[in-house]
Structures are given as C-alpha cells and as structure tokens.
Amino acid sequence: MQNGGQLLVQSLVALGATRAFGVPGESYLAVLDALHDTAGKLDFTLCRNEGGAAFMAAAWGKLTGSPGICMVTRGPGVTNASIGIHTAMQDSAPMIIFVGQVGTDLQGREAFQEIDYRAVFGTMAKWATEITHVDRIPEVLSRAWMTALSGRPGPVVIALPEDMLTTLTATAPLTTAATIREPAPDAATMADALALLRGAHRPLILLGGCNWTDAGRQAMQAFAEASDIPTIAAFRFQDRFDNHSPVYAGEAGVGMPPHVRKLMLEADTILALNIRFGEMTTDAYTLLDVPVPKQRLIHVHPSDREIGKIYQPTLGIQAGPNAFATALSPISGPWAAWRETARAGYEASFDAPAQPSPVDMVAVTAHLRAILPDDVILTNGAGNFTVWPNKFFKYGPKARLLAPQSGAMGYGLPAAIAAKVAHPDRTVVCFAGDGDFQMNCQELGTAMQAGAQPIVLILNNGTYGTIRAHQERHYPARVSATDLVNPDFAALARAYGFHGERVETTADFPAAFARALASKTGAVLD
C-alpha cells in the first residue's frame, strides 16, 4: 500500500519527468514527502515565488519538448502561478501544474484558500481537472501527459485534494509513457500542397511552434533551400530555423521590420506551418484579410482546432510539423529574385545607426553575435529592450530563444534559470529591462541555491519603456506612473552570490562581459 502522493510521484517518474519547479505548501505535503525518495530521478527546484516557478516550468517545456512540471499550493499559490500557465498556453508549450487543494470534506464552503480550479483555469489552460479518487491518479496523469504534448501543446492544471493525497491505495503506478505519433499527411494532400506552391510567383514559408525535432527542422530547411523559398518565423520563434540560411528572411513579430511586412503583404502563396496566427505575427490581423486572405494559404497544424480558427485556408492540413516537413519534395519556380530581395532585406535590417546612449546596444549586440557560442540560449521577458535579442541576433541551428508570446514581464530570468538547470554547461544569457528584471529578481536566490546561474544583462533606462513610449505618443508632455527609482543592481547580484557590476560605457562592455563569462557563479551586468 502507498498513499496518493507516492503514487503520483512514482507515476511521474515512469512518464519521464526528471525535474519539477515549485514552492512548497502544506496542501501537498504528501507529494513533497514522496519526492524525498526520487533524488537523481525526479528533482525539485525550490523557487522563491510561484510565478517564477511556473515561468521555469513553461520554459522547460518550450526548451526540452517534455512537459514542464510545476508544483504549488492552493489559493494564493496557484493564482501567483497563473502568469506561467497563461504564458505556456500562448507559447503552445507543454506543461503540467499540480495544485494542492482543500480536503474533499471542506469543499464548496469557501474554505481557507479554496478555489474552483476548473472554473478559474478552464479557459486559461488546455485542460483543468481535479483528482478526487486516489485510485484514478495514474489514469489522470496519463491523460494529462498526452494532453500537454499532443495536438497544440499546452498547460494542464491538476488539483490535488489534501485528503486524497494521504489516502492509501493498492493501485499500481504507471510504468511507462505512451508513444504519441504526429498526424501525418497522405500523398494526395502533399501533392495538392506542392501544386499550390508550384503555381506561385511569390511563395513564402511562415513557421513556428515548440514541437519541432532536429530531423523535422533539418527537413524543413532542406526543402526551403532546395526550393529557394523565403522563410520567416512567427513571433519569437526565429530559433526554429537557421538564421544563417540564404532563404531565412526574418521574424514576423513586435516591431516588425518593413521588409517582413512587405513580404507577407506581397506573397501570393503562404505555407503557414505549425503556427496559430497570433496578433503580433499578423500585425493585429491586418496583413491577411479576415476571414478569407487575398494570399493563397496552406495552413498546416497538428490540431484541427487551429485550422480555420481565424483565416479560411485554401488548403488546411492537419499534420505535425515534423511529419509534414519530412514528406516535402523540393520544387522550383520563377521566384529567385523574390528570395534574393527577401534575404537582402534581412541582412540590411542589422545596419542600425549608433544609439544615443552611454552604452550603445547596436555595438553590444554586434559584439555578442561575434563571441557567443553556437549553442547559446538567450532569454527575455517583455519590453522595448527585447528588440535586441529578437531582431539583432542570428540564431544558428544549435542556438535557442526562450521568449514569451504572452508578452509577460519577468519571464526572462526564470526561463534562464530553467535553461541552466537543463543545460548546466551551456552559456545562457538573459536580456532584461530594469522594470522587467524586478518582476522576478528574487529568483536569483533560486539560481544560487540550484547552482544554475546565468548571465543577466539589465538594460537600465529608469522607466517602463514600452508604456512610456505609448504614453508620449498618445499623451505628450503628460508623463505619469512610468518613471522608476532603482536599487543598485550590481550590489543586489553580489548579495545573491553572482558577479555583479555596472557598465557605464560601450567601450567597457567587452571586458565586463568577458568577466561575466568567466564567473563560476553567473553574472548580472547593469
């Protein structure tokens, strides 16, 4: 016999979970107790706030392709964590969050910290449920794992009543995870898709999503290059295609470069692969007409619920990105000049003028492009500063970008910590604004305790820059509630065991970053 907490943890190990992020709570003590026996198999990273923990789990899912596991307590714990749930959903990242719940004998009375999780998270998560019978733990976990990974990946919320977790059961834990195969297109469907592309004069590939394999990415790149078709990435998914490829032409996202906007408007055929047509990628749904675009649209997605959700495609294909990519055969057409112009626009986008700042980020990002390793992982939260890692860095086949499609401030530091936990030997660099950093700066303590300390670059302009820009545009000369008075960030970093220093001039940056790279305990550069 074993209790529900033990059954849950043993089943998670069998499914393949190796890491959980969270903040402890008395509502799930039985789970914490069971984790005492899984060191080296399923380890728990102790976080400082549930929001940071949920961001780490969301980033883990995006980076590894395996569901990020988060564990938090009831009420205030899970409401803190809701920002990570929302981010995982908008990122289409697999995640499972376990929430302690009041005992079943107290439910329905607005007991201490009680929440109806199905009601609160039913529209925010891919699935929200509660396990009320201990014998059903393996069943629900199996479904949750499949749900988080299949179709459009996303977060699952599971409430765990305290008395259910302490109840004894003879039910056996799961012993393995099911194999999930992507839906694959048939030959006739592929022939139709290729025929549409062959008939184009200005074809364009638009791709994104978390659930790519290395083989799928290589197949997609091989097709695009052999067919000489310009390829752009959806908002914050530019790491899914080698930016050094001659067919890569940029990212369709916030601050969309003019040449990318022109490509989308002038394309006569768009192959949209594994994307959900978010607001940022479509420039508020203005680049394609709703509901029927002028461009011929081939929309490929593993979830049938995404196809036709906004735009009526010329051809809708329910297929996984990797299965579809590997089924493609190269084509040719009269678009060589179109592709050359697209690539030239991308290369020209790096020719930005020097910035009127003591530390010129054009020069800084040029230096980073030159010295960072091929497998670097960059992360960021939200703010005007994200233009630098999102528009001024070239992601090779081994580099990764962890950045929230939800536009959530405070994501960058927790994501960088999760990346460092997953890959302790890789260089991880977080870009953060001063306002963005302070949303989750307490997670420096998590990094210190876990030995997962990234390099953090704080772009400090003393204001909530994005809001200030909108404010000055719409309410000129009436600045209100956007100026920040900041602490000594370098001193704060040193208090958490990081190397910390303030960089005053552009010329000082290369040496300061070299010291950051050499630090064994991470670094924060203000």
Strands, count:
20
Main beta sheet strand tally, sense and closure = 6 strands, parallel
* Helix amount: 25-40%
Structural class, from secondary structure content? alpha/beta
Helix count, per DSSP?
20
Low-confidence segments, given as residue ranges, are: none
Outline: globular
Strand order of the largest sheet: 3-2-4-5-7-6
| Mean pLDDT level | 96
Taking the alpha carbons of the first and last residues, their distance comes to 54 Å
Strand content: 15-25%
* Radius of gyration using CA atoms only: 24 Å
Helix and strand arrangement:
Elements: E1 2-3, H1 4-15, E2 19-22, H2 29-35, E3 43-46, H3 50-64, E4 68-72, H4 76-91, E5 95-101, H5 117-121, E6 127-130, H6 137-149, E7 155-161, H7 162-166, E8 168-169, H8 187-198, E9 203-207, H9 214-227, E10 231-234, E11 248-252, H10 258-266, E12 269-273, E13 296-301, E14 315-318, H11 321-327, H12 336-348, H13 361-371, E15 377-380, H14 387-391, E16 400-402, H15 412-422, E17 428-433, H16 434-437, H17 444-450, E18 455-459, H18 465-474, H19 489-495, E19 499-501, H20 509-518, E20 523-525
Parallel strand pairs: 2-3, 2-4, 4-5, 5-7, 6-7, 9-10, 9-12, 10-11, 12-13, 13-14, 15-16, 15-17, 17-18, 18-20, 19-20
Antiparallel strand pairs: 1-8
Helix pairs in contact: 1-2, 1-6, 3-4, 3-15, 9-11
Compact overview of the structure:
Helices cover 37% and strands 17% of the residues. The protein is of the alpha/beta class.
What does this structure look like?
- This protein has 526 residues and is of the alpha/beta class.
- It contains 20 helices and 20 strands.
- The strands form four sheets. It has a six-stranded parallel beta sheet with strand order 3-2-4-5-7-6, sandwiched between helices. A six-stranded parallel beta sheet has the order 11-10-9-12-13-14, sandwiched between helices. It has a six-stranded parallel beta sheet with strand order 16-15-17-18-20-19, with helices on both faces.
